Amino acid sequence: MCGDGDVCGYILVRKVLPEAQILDMAVRRAEQGRGLGKALLEHVQSQARAWGCAKLCLEVSANNEPAQRLYVRAGFLVVGRRRKFYNDGSDAILMDRLLA
For strand 55-61 and strand 77-82, is the pairing parallel, antiparallel, or unpaired? Predict the structure, then answer.
């Protein structure tokens, strides 16, 4: 919770063994750059390990460079691309992080 009682950020994950898939993640704009995204990813990595998952995977818009930087810093690697995946015509960058 943010200081004002509102939600600061969230992450939505589903378990599909042997992996966990990050379906959505967002951090309130006013809270970005304070480590909340990193904390959410660390928590999900810990939970995915507890579930017995071997990797985390996600897709992110090619236009969302701040999110891509966050994921790379968290150990994700680019493993593929889906052309014109999003409604705005941008590509989806596919990323994985091994949890071994």
Answer: unpaired
pLDDT digits (tens, 9 = 90+) for 37-80: 999 999 999 999 999 999 999 999 999 999 999 999 999 999 99
Give CA–CA dist 71/58, Å, rounded. Answer: 9
Q: Where are the alpha helices (DSSP H) in 1-100?
A: 36-51, 65-73
**Which positions ≥6 away from 43 have C-beta within 8 Å?**
11
In eight-state DSSP terms, residue 47 is H
- Distant-in-sequence, close-in-space partners of 91: CB < 8 Å, separation ≥ 6: 61, 62, 81, 82, 83, 84, 85
For residue 98, is pLDDT > 90? yes
